[in-house]
Design brief:
This protein is mainly alpha-helical. The protein is built from nine helices and two strands.
């Protein structure tokens, strides 16, 4: 593409080096502008063109199959997370309050690092067995350990943290609904 532009002399002098190609300066400027716009856009904004291309021809069926696999992985992973969380004591489950910390530890454990601190080894063994029981294909052999795919991992973490949150909410509601229980607790402590 050929274009003709007008640029103030002082701007050109300040922004370029002597003898620099006008074409190279314009191309560099456009690349910087493109990168800045890409950094400012929201996730998936403007990606309709990518989705439109993916949905053309025989891609739409394959894309739908992948989405269905991811959905199965997500719902199965969430169920595994809840089931495994229900096998924990409250003391152990309460240590799983930070999803990022739990996620990091799960990644490490499934990669073969058995130096876990957030939840006991039995929890991870339960998760491993439940994944096999639910026949979730996201579990793959990886070196000396196991690796989870992102959808399954995030669903597992959400299942555990949601279970913890449900216990906290149910316990708080129970205390609020029974004022004598609250007084008994206060009397025992004080």
């Amino acid at each position: 593409m050929k274009i003709t532009v007008s640029v103030p002399d002082d701007l050109w002098a300040d922004a370029t080096e002597p003898g620099e190609s006008p074409s190279a300066v314009v191309q560099d400027s456009l690349r910087l502008r493109k990168a800045r716009k890409a950094a400012q856009r929201q996730p998936f904004e403007g990606d309709s063109e990518i989705l439109d291309r993916a949905m053309e021809g025989d891609f739409s069926g394959k894309l739908g199959d992948l989405v269905a696999q991811a959905d199965k992985m997500q719902s199965g992973g969430y169920t595994v997370g809840v089931d495994a969380a229900l096998s924990l004591s409250w003391e152990d489950l309460d240590r799983a309050a930070d999803p990022a910390e739990l996620r990091d530890e799960m990644v490490a454990w499934f990669a073969g690092d058995d130096d876990v601190e957030v939840l006991p080894h039995e929890f991870y063994e339960t998760v491993h067995q439940l994944i096999r029981d639910y026949n979730l294909a996201g579990l793959t052999e990886h070196g000396s350990g196991l690796r989870l795919n992102t959808v399954l991992l995030n669903a597992l973490v959400r299942g555990v943290t949601d279970t913890r949150l449900a216990v906290v909410i149910l316990q708080a509601n129970k205390d609020m609904a029974d004022p004598t229980r609250r007084y008994e607790t206060i009397d025992e402590e004080g």
